[in-house]
Amino acid sequence: MDGPRHAPNSHPTQQAEAVRLVSVRKTYGAADNPVVALNNVTVGLPAGTFTAVMGPSGSGKSTFLHCAAGLDQPTSGRVFIDGAELTGGDETALTKFRRQRVGFVFQQFNLLPTLTALQNVALPLRLAGRRVDLRHCRAVLASVGLAERADHLPAELSGGQQQRVAIARAIAAQPRVIFADEPTGALDTTAARDVLGLLRQSVRQGGQTIVMVTHDPVAASYADAVLFLADGQLVGSLTRPTADAVAQRMARLSDEVARRHQVAVGV
Ligand SMILES: Nc1ncnc2c1ncn2[C@@H]1O[C@H](COP(=O)(O)OP(=O)(O)OP(=O)(O)O)[C@@H](O)[C@H]1O
């Protein structure tokens, strides 16, 4: 397994926190028998960094991403994006907050099929009621290698190209943080590397902050740091991760979780 080399960050002065979770807890189901998806998670992610979130299945990765990005509200605890509190408001306030400060890249691209690549890139700006500079949107599409495809519909593009449009869409709105949920999960190896390279480039050159959930140690090795979750808790981190180190840590973590669960059910 190989991954990228870690060049020095070109934005070393940006050390303010872009994301902060304080004692975040998320439970699902009935109060007398809750499923605890996140258990007292406190963490701060510096601006201008790329963080991967990993953990065994059911460890709380998606819940972490959804709570951190304001797609879901924690049961208790607080979430801040760029110093502004995201928790505590109603759904309308949350939607406005997301549109202004947060971008998303999903596993299945989530492009609108009836809009061209360029129109998809401009959409978050329109939804946020911001001025749409189509020249800027075209330039962002060009920066992900799709200058020639601006007027094509998603169905006319490959999976990798569609995900590059989705990245352009996230970048064009210049959000404080981009949250990526398994962005390479539906792509082949080459397209996945292109996408991960673009995400890294937006951190290195654009000073973007990215938080990415992934199952793939190679994908995680593109990040500056990896956070590991197990049973809803943060159980460790790796800085300047290599794919091998991430894979080893994940194997250990999965063994530990399996052992704990066996003890819990008396096996
Ligand atoms: N809507 C829900 N209702 C009840 N339980 C839920 C709900 N969503 C998640 N959970 C539970 O919360 C825990 C964490 O789920 P989450 O989806 O965050 O884990 P994950 O690490 O993203 O898993 P995977 O890698 O399998 O996608 C799991 O035990 C899951 O079953």
From TrEMBL:
Q: Which residues form the ABC transporter domain?
A: 19-256
Q: Name one Pfam family in it.
A: ABC_tran
Q: Supply one GO molecular-function term.
A: ATP binding
Concerning InterPro entries, the annotation shows:
AAA+_ATPase, ABC_transporter-like_ATP-bd, ABC_transporter-like_CS, ABC_transpr_LolD-like, MacB-like_ATP-bd, P-loop_NTPase
Keywords annotated in UniProt? ATP-binding, Nucleotide-binding, Transport
Could you name the domain of life of the organism this protein comes from?
Bacteria
* Gene Ontology CC annotations of this record: membrane protein complex; plasma membrane
Spell out the protein name for this chain.
Answer: ABC transport system ATP-binding protein
> Which species?
Goodfellowiella coeruleoviolacea
